[in-house]
Amino acid sequence: MALANFFQKTGIKTWLAIGLFLATLILYANTFSHDFAWDDAIVITENPRVQEGISGISAHFFKYKSEQLADQYGYRPIVLSSFSIEYELFGLKATGYHVMNVIFYGLTCVFLFLALTRVFPRYSPWLPFLVAALYLVHPLHVEAVANIKSRDEIFAMMFSLLSLYYFMGYAKEKSWLKFALSLFFLTLGVLSKENAATFLAILPLAVLIQEEGTWKEKLKTLLPLPALLVIALVVLVVIPQADSLDATAYKETQDTGIFHEDKSLGNVIVAADGLNERLGTALYTLLLYLGKFLFPHPLTYYSGANQIPLVGMGNPLSLLALLIHLGAAVFSLVFFKKHKVFAFGILYYLATISVFSNIPVVLNDTMADRFQFMPSLGLCLVLVWGLGLIFKVDFSSFSWGKRDSKIPAKKPNPVFLFLLGALMLGFGLKTFSRNQAWKDNATLFETDMPNLENCARAHYHYAGILAAKLNLNPQNKALGDKVIHHFKRAAEISEHAYYARMKLGQVYMFLGRGGEAISTLQELVRTFPEQGRPKFHLGYAYFQMGKFQEAIDAFKASKAQAENRADLYFYMAQAYKNLNQPDEAILVADEGAARFPEEVNFYDLLSDLYFQKENSKEAILQIQRVFEYQPLSSDAWIKLVLLYQNFGMPQEAQNTYNEALAKGVDMSRLTPK
Q: What's the pLDDT at 536?
């Protein structure tokens, strides 16, 4: 009773909101020490515009279309701007970003609680609190919080809930200020991630379920909604299609050899044989989403090809999913008046999960835990309300103390509280444990690998982590075999595993297994004939094995496909040199130096080639070009001295030696004649 009186005096909503926020900090505190992981590279560690800090914020509001990693993220300027601000504060120290993610998630849970108190004003605030608490602890949300990149999910949800909160205020008070705030926050949500636009359906739904007001009055309230629709269309359609920066972006990235296998390896539905398999698999994944909500295990960072199988509409699970979703939709419409909370929860879920269903549009990923970040609220509502119906909980009078209401307060059913509490405790423990998997890439890939045996990209990423260890300990045969196994497994799972095959060839070369490297790379060339990079790696493998003519042929084929990289020209010139064809070597090295003037290895090689042709002037001139970029290069100064000596110019050699010493160059490896 004392606790109830305390709540009553201080405002129970305030204390419940504070409790939600503090619980978030406690539950996710073990992520604060984590490093960057998974897709954080796209938005922070390998995003040059974010790393410009505050000065780069304006650039986020333009749409860039290029092959660079940073431009594969999508048009989400609000999220990127937050990262720019934090880069100014924290640099590349991940702790600050993780703390901010948890704070934003805590605020999202608070705003969820407050928004639901306005959507369901006739019920006790304990109903929104229990829904928000269940949402807070659910393990499906770990990816969105522990993976910094997924702040887009948090922001989209947070701003959408604020939009809902103010829209309900507008609906009740007819305040145009609150309507303007609702429009403002929904715009921020859509600028954070596109799925926030689904709240264009949620806002009118929240108004229509209200018990006060006639249908005519409710429809009149909804008349300004087209203004929100226009904003969403501009953000989602007009801006992303703008091409004012396309030419610049393409010029910066053309001929880089970047190949995107994301969609083919990310979503098995890309390989679907017609509408039957596409719909069957999409429905099957919707059933998996429901299953993961009720029993969130195992959780994985990725569910790409071919972890989820392709199935047709005849699959029993696909048919079950269709019946469940159609049945839920019909139930919510038929019993809209009698079971408003149920109806709202079901329709909310169907509206927000629709964009992740692969039915309207095939996504880059088949499914992901983060895709349920927004939709899971609807399931939380249905679950709490459903348990309440089973145990005859009256949420209108649900209270632990006195209430400012004519309806007498009723104590909550202890069995209901026990079951819901046990569920939340189990979910909370799972969340706290799952957080640890997101510590860094190595931990994440290793933790999830046993549950992703049929996922090509999971094998590829795990092999990459192992390959880094192998690089430090190349004599570890067991480790080498393990690296090869996972790269090969990725290639076996999907014929589209381009990078896994390429890395496999490189690992074979690293381990001195040249024959296997060449056969692997030859197969890669046959599988991806339109790509130039596999031909380069095949050429390099031939070069390493001393097969210089075969190397030159492969390099030429790669070059013909605009494979624009410095080492292609360098090794091709070296191959000509090793075949005692200095003139051809000079032509290739000259072209490489013209394309990559800062790559001083070309000047060193050209100097050797001209020395071989006994052209003293050009040999000396080429090594002197190194000083334009590396004025204190010890190797270049020593080589210049030796050239003067070999060409019978002792005074120039001595003068050069003295000049180098005067500049502070380390010449200890050379004693002048």
A: 94
